[in-house]
Amino acid sequence: MFQYRQVLVRLRAGDSERELSRSRLMGRQKLALFRALAARSGWLDAGAELPDDAAIAAAMGAARRASSTISSVEPHRAIVAHWFAAGVGGKAIHAALRREHGFTGSYSAVARMLVALRAQQPPEVTVRLAFEPGEAAQVDFGAGPILVHPDGQPRRTWAFVMTLAHSRHQFVEFVWDQSVATWLGCHRRAFEWFGAVPARLIIDNAKCAITRACSKDPLVQRAYAECAEGYGFKIDACPPHDPQKKGIVEAGVKYVKGNFLPTRSFRDLSDLNAQARTWVMEEAGLRIHGTTRIAPLALFALERPLLRPLPDAAPDLGTWHRVSVHRDCHVQFERILYSAPFTLVGKQLWLRATDAVVALYEDLRHVATHPRGRRPGDRRTVRDHLPPQAQAFFAHDRHWCLEQARRIGPSCLLLLERLLGDAILERLRAAQGVIQLGKQYGDQRVEAACVRALAHDSPYYRTVKTILATGADLRNDPPALTPSSYAKSTRFTRDAASLFASPNPQQDLLH
Fold it and tell me: Could you read off the pLDDT of 328-361 as tens digits, one per residue?
């Protein structure tokens, strides 16, 4: 009411309305109304006492004439108030009134009622959070520019931003996705960038960090919990739908998007991150911050000694995944196969993947560890994980067969060399069968059978087995033919004596 008293004093002193208008105390129209009110109230009389602020306010309030027009929205006040409380916009309310309630008024009438309803609400009150040096950092993702991915397709990048809550010094890195592995890797590089670890990280409820959002009991992602334990920081998840609790990094993301990205061009992701690091150190870190009024790097120099030191050895960060053991005794992760014990076929396991290894767990029991595959389609197999039959088959390879034949005798070794040297058929199973005959008949008889089979130029499993089954290896008469003499004859011109000298003429004919 100060300006009204000034106007009243100058009116009583004889100043004209034009002069008062030029002094910008009050406009001509409003000044005319106030002069009329002062005249009716007797305030312009030379001997009258100047009214106080309360009297002027009461007189001006009484002078206002209330509008007698009833709003066309008034019959629908209850439903409009309900929609307003639910956060429905004015345009949507106007359209719903016209569609569902036959409202024929204008949108301006709805807007005026919304203004009145908003004025009746108590004003929003907020409190600025203050953080001690080293106490906390805030983390968030923001949309970055679209670049060409290594696969040749244009893809959106994402800006990972970690801001120290006291000094406002930032770590900025652009990535291709928001996966758990990317989230953990960005944390590692952020701590190495600062050279220290804050006591607490304030985050939102991204799936890579929080698997179940809750204001009281959030559930932290298993791999992120291991990261917090390894580096020694606490996770402080904001309540759902309340990003103001991490307003410092929200403003930091906007600052990156508004001050770094618009004026630059980037060849690829590496160039983008290189320019971002330079920008943080040479521009963002040296500016006078709007809240602290100090350059972030200057405050960081004071905050740095109060942060927690990095661990002596960097934690082995890994991501956890649920996998199933398939019929082939392998689990699949990122299109790479890793073996598990055959007794676990059909069960679900936990897979923990790091940069170097992949480990499998059945609940808390460690099952297997494999070097991590690098290309889709790779297979990492431990032979002991396979069923006994499969282990035996793969263990009894060519080298094993020849070693066993050498132990049995020279004829057995020669027979297996000819058997495995077949240029057309793979005869590994036949070679394994010859060695297995030693369990039933003994190595000495197998060697004798191999001598007779070679004498008849029939180095086959069936020939050796027939000789052993008929007992021909036990006969004292020497074989009728020797390999060298038989080699001089052709295959289809054997004489009758040599043919029937075989212990099994029909079998010899087949071969």
Answer: 999 999 999 999 999 999 999 999 998 889 999 9
Do residues 467 and 474 make contact, with C-beta atoms less than 8 angstroms apart?
no
Residue 422, both tokens? 């077949």
In DSSP terms, 161 is beta-bridged to: 140, 172
Calpha distance 285→196 (Å, rounded): 17
Helices 180-194/222-231 angle, 10° precision: 10
Order of strands across the sheet with 348-353?
319-324, 348-353, 357-362, 365-371
pLDDT digits (tens, 9 = 90+) for 293-303: 999 999 999 99
CA 350/CA 207 separation, integer angstroms: 18
Q: What is the pLDDT of residues 459-490, one digit of tens each?
A: 999 999 999 999 988 887 766 554 443 444 44
> Of 385, 384, 413, 382, which Cα lies nearest the Cα of 399?
413
Rounded CA separation 259/283 (Å): 10
Residue 24: closest CA among 39, 6, 45: 6
**First vs last C-alpha separation in the chain:** 124
3-state SS string for 2-45: HHHHHHHHHHHCCCCHHHHHHCCCCCHHHHHHHHHHHHHHCCCC
- The interaxial angle of helices 90-100 and 107-120, nearest 10 deg, is 120
For the question of whether the overall pTM of this predicted structure is more than 0.85, the answer is: no
**3-class DSSP assignment, residue 209:** coil
C-alpha span between 262 and 160 (Å, rounded): 17
Q: Are 486 and 457 in contact (CB under 8 A)?
A: yes
